[in-house]
Queue: 2 jobs
Job 1
Amino acid sequence: MPASAEGPALIELRNISKHYGEGQTRVDALVGVTAAVYPGEIVGLLGPSGSGKTTLLNVIGCVIEPSEGWMMLDRERVYDAQWLRADLRRLRLEKIGFVFQTPNLLPFLNSTENVAAVMELMSVRPREARARALQLLNYLDVGHRGLSMPGQLSGGEAQRVAIARALANAPRIILADEPTAALDSQRAGVVMDLLRRVAIDRRAAIVVVTHDEKIFDRFDRVFHLRDGRLDATAAGGVK
Amino acid sequence: MNLAFRDIRHNALRFALTSVGLGLLLGIVVAMAGIYEGALDDALRLPRASHPDLWVVQPGTKGPFAEPSRIPRDTRDLVRRIPGVAAAGAVTFESVQTAVQGKPLRLDIEGYEPGRIGGPESIIAGHGITESHYQMVADRSSGLRLGERVPLGPYHDPYTVVGLTRGMVNSAGDPVAWVSLLDAQSLQFAVTPPLQRREQASGRAPLPTADINAVLVRLQPGFAPEAVAQDIVRWKHLSAVPQREEESYLTVFVIEKMQRQLGMFMAILITVSTVIIALLIYTLTMDKLRSIATLKLVGASDRTIIGLIVQEALIIGVTGFWLGVAFTSALASHFPRRVLILPRDIGLLFGVVIVVCLLASVLAVHAAVKVEPAQALAG
Ligand SMILES: Nc1ncnc2c1ncn2[C@@H]1O[C@H](COP(=O)(O)OP(=O)(O)OP(=O)(O)O)[C@@H](O)[C@H]1O
Ligand SMILES: [Mg+2]
């Protein structure tokens, strides 16, 4: 367990495999991945193109089911025999925040509404959702753009609004796929600083998929994926 | 917050243009319903005007509004003496075409016996017929004024307008005018002298000129129209049609074609409306597949997504519908026939529009449900 992290793991992967297709066209995207991520740490997920990074993030994010293996998310068991597919949506809603390469904001909602919409999905009252959304935007230093539509935001501002949205459901697991790929190095640094702040303030576990060498030094630990396998030396941390 | 409303606001121009187009289409549908109701109401005005209980007509016929009927004038006295009959009046109906001040004028002339059942009700200006010849009460929709003279018959006898009514037209929309029974009979049955001479020369009996078309009957309280009608048929060998039946002949046979004609048009227009709504909703949905994937990824249920799409369809449909009602209401008085917009029809059409919106969302809903949350993450 790394120095910055503490307590039981928020993400625990046990022997996760995922293959697409069958026979001739079978692709083994993930093979026997076992790993753990602890509260308060930021883990980098690196590997060449096609090595299974996005697939692994999708499995952790309850977006796609693995072909084999199971995991624990914030003390809840997922993908084992008793697992119900319908609960994936609830898990995404309650436990996970997503940040994408492009901000993926809903173009017809302003910044505040983009964040508040997620809260309303969790049955927070509209008035309270707005207030809390504005707080989050302030926390990410984009409070002044609260009424702007996504089309009017700069790339860096949009990405910060997107991070605010990822935090809207107060998740302790945050998954980011290439969050800095579209930003210059200064803005990429700002985004990583913000994620660091979230990891510390919220005791959150953060997994960041990246190719971006400028942020390699920002991770507490790094997972290397190669042909769907986790590099044994780097995975570490499973007790 | 309402996502459907925000999305529509984001696409305001597309939404506004579609609503206006849809509004015009649905406005025509509302107008057609109104035209039908107007014609139905118009058609029933004349048979309802005198509140008769029975129509006595030529044996084997169904009343003056369904088919021609010709019976002798003394029928009225025969009928009057039947037990249960409180009042009876002889009437004639005839369409005439004339010209007033160079403008062609079509009138539905009803001849009646002043003082008996069958004349104009609720005269809004002037008075009823007071002399036995050449007076006329006309409906205001004819454009005639009090004191104006209307030439009628083969000799262009001048009839003076002495009274005006409101809203009395026949099922074709022609204004109704009343004249005395004697005048009406000579208009309908009089034969010009040359023709009379020819008939005489060929040895035929002179044509009766004092016939009537029908006798209107009002019953004493406590007598059933069907029972009295049976007596008339059995003892007097005439046809007697209760008022309700007469109205249904008129509506079923005379109006039915119009109903089918307009119904056909309405069905086509409503189909076009469905396609328009479906097209807009489908393109709006295609434009936001990425947003839908993102919503699903952050945990929105299919119900939320379907709700978004169906609400958008309902917003456009309902907006278009009320625009249409507004258009048609604003233009109603400019239609040549009466456009009668009934709350019942508005309610019915509103229900149809709701169903149309639901149908129109099917395609878009189908596409949206297939969206995978993983698509939000894909490059
Ligand atoms: N839906 C799918 N159907 C079939 N094969 C897939 C699917 N998604 C991914 N794959 C395959 O699985 C493997 C891993 O893909 P993945 O997207 O996880 O790679 P990645 O590491 O994210 O690559 P990149 O760095 O290019 O984003 C690849 O060989 C890819 O072609
Ligand atoms: Mg990827």
Note: The radius of gyration of chain A is 18 Å.
Job 2
Amino acid sequence: MTIHEAPHVCPQQALTLKDFKSSVEPIWCSGCGDFGVLQALQRALAELGRPPHEVVVVSGIGCSSRLPAYTTAYGFHGVHGRALPVATGLKLARPDLEVITVGGDGDGYSIGGNHFLHACRRNVDITYIVMDNRVYGMTKGQPSPTTEADWDSDAAPGGTGVKPFSPLAIALAAGANFVARGFALDVKPLAAVIAEAVRHPGFSFVEVLSPCITFRPEEMEWKKTIERNAVTATTDRTEATAKVLGANEMTTGIFFKGDRGAYASAPTGHGDAEKIAEKFVVGA
Amino acid sequence: MSTTRKSVSIVIAGSGGTGAITAGSTLLAAAARDGHYGLMTKLSGAQVRGGEAAALIEIGRSGIDGPIEAQPDRFDALIALDWENIQRFAPEIPLDGDSVVLSDPKAGPVPAVIAATGARILEVAFGALAGSVEGGRINMVGFGVAARLAGLDETAIEAAIRAQIGAKGEKAVAASLAAAKVGAEALAALGVSMALSPGEKKARWMCSGNDAVGLGALRGGIEFVAAYPITPATEITEWLAVEMQEHGGRVVLAEDEIAAINMCCGAAYAGVPTMTITSGPGLALKVETLGLAIAAELPMVVVDVMRVGPSTGIPTKSDQGDLDIALHGTPGDAPRVVLAPISIADCAATTERAVHVAEALQTPVMLLSDQSLGQTQTIIDIPRTRPAPLKRLVEPAVTGPDFRRYALTESGVSPMPAPGNPGTQWVADGLSHKESGHPSNAAVDHIAQMKKRLRKLETFDWGDTWGEVHGPADATLALIAFGSTVGPAAEAARRLTEAGTPTRVVALRLIAPLQKNRLAEALAGTARVVVVEQNASGQLFRHLLGERALGPGAESFARPGPAPFRAAEIVAHLTAETREAAE
Ligand SMILES: Cc1ncc(C[n+]2csc(CCOP(=O)(O)OP(=O)(O)O)c2C)c(N)n1
Ligand code: SF4
């Protein structure tokens, strides 16, 4: 593989949130929870200290997936549901880069659900932030895999009647190495959780409750119902799973910090293809 | 002693576990060492493991004729190690009154379909002969029979056994040598010989098209491969997984084909040459992301080893029905490059070229192989020419706020710095975008970027990538073919020429963007043009018509797999058509 210089951190020049703020105007509705997530991510990146050109933010499609262009980092805004494979290929090809994946609950749990399972299982050293608003925002308000069974919408009048699943429990069962929940409007604590997720080796998953003010205005009430940092991280997967399933689903904080070794990056160095070609030769 | 011949075609068949394919591979390896060309098609039943198997082999043609690139019209000999279920293969093993069948009377009567061919039936006690040797196996007796029938040299036979069986230890080698010897003696006692005229002993390649694609990928500089297993493409992935351990780079087994091509998008964005490998059903899953790679201008090679479709079709058999999806399969209008190797030997160079073109043009390149190219084993001349390397343009003209990833250059190619490079941060996006890469719904931006992507393919110097022409300058008939159809079409052209109709074969390698001028030059002077392809609806014919690359009288000879094209079928079609036309 191409040899790239080791990342250099420049301690003299402290980075600030501004260094990660791009000039592109977000398309988000004013009051959308995703603004908080963007700010928290920018804060976390500043704190982590890697310059923007050593960071890549990858996403799929959705309101939340618009985020990469709003940072000054390198970015990839791909197709719906496929952000995690893109991030996986990127990180394996270039382990020197900091790779952050972002998206929505539809993108990550519905169309991209299979990739979510396998990203947890594979445990490549990337961070995955899901802005869960329990709705498909971009397509104007259809229920997602985390939407309550009785939530009424045009696409499912009276509700889907289907129980939502717990992304955190799934992540734990599938092998994620770091599992946390945050709240979009608690920018500072969320930034701290994201920074820790990025630092933690392997696949780190941060589910962020991020209200959709337009299609789920009632989610603004989350400000009141959130149970802030009501959990302490454990290194025991069983215990973490019990906490996730037992706790109020509004509980924020870090549930699990595992010790799985991250999926190894590719062996570097270039062999001589002509040596391999010699294996085809007969009759010399 | 009977006269020698230019080539001999032999089938070795047996039920699961008898090792018919190993015997066939050993015969091919011995022929290579004795200076011959060769071609081996493997047949197996529907069972995942076990079941009947047959190795269909032609060897010889050393000297002026060049490698064998099509299955023979008929077989000279069938070596039946037993008779279990062989009738299932009978249609694929044409025999006639000049053929011989060598079988063990202990294995039961000769099946009616075989007897009905009129082939001469000869008895060889495979079971008893194998039993007479310690550790002897009947497939190696069968190999000995075949090798003696073709008149192969003792040292070549021994070297081939050592190469094929050596890993199993000296004891196994000794047993195989002894088994081959008793087989050869039994054949000699029957007094039949189909001995080949002496071959020209020189270094050659023995490989399959799938192996050659793997080598071409490494030569081209592929460092990252992501794939999901699918017949008949998996062998490329497996070959690369093994070779890359030493060579460097990585193969990732993705959770599905969509994940695989998206992983390639990530690696391509990261600055690394990348490839994904699949067959038709997997290609169908990849097309949405193919559009993303075209729009975001991400280089990658997408290999499709075509099999019979639609849907699951016949996974182990060849067909050329994915041309339409390769040319057009993506949402929206997405110009692309489609390359198809024109022979097994060409699989290496065309794959290498595909990597270079993808990198140089920052776009996905479809590499259309097919089951027949991919899984057939051949002995061929060592390809001596390799494409000139091309690299990705990464050096930005400016850095900072003025950097524009999708700058509208004359060539259509704009600098693509990789992450890690300061001052050139850009976002790859499937949304229509401006030169900066930022999303835009404006018609001017959309059209300018669409034209830029078209321009890249139009202004590129394709050199001789377009294809090849073989045959006489005064040809009146031209056959246009691609992929594994080129071999049988070329053989048909040779025969037609010999029979008094000078015929040329135009082998198309660059199917898109079509180099119409080169094709027109290749067809110049011919009165009749026939497009030969292995699919039901004439996809190449329609493509060429759509591009206005064919004259009004051009004909289509299209028929689907799974049966391979044989030269005789093409000749018969053309002469029948000629007769009809004359009437
Ligand atoms: C293959 C495909 N299917 C459907 C769509 C339409 N689509 C765009 S975004 C989206 C859902 C977005 O929901 P979510 O991921 O939760 O993000 P949000 O907009 O709520 O942030 C859908 C269904 C698409 N772009 N591509
Ligand atoms: S629709 Fe909802 S999720 Fe989308 S930008 Fe508006 S508030 Fe945010």
Note: Chain B has 18 helices and 21 strands.
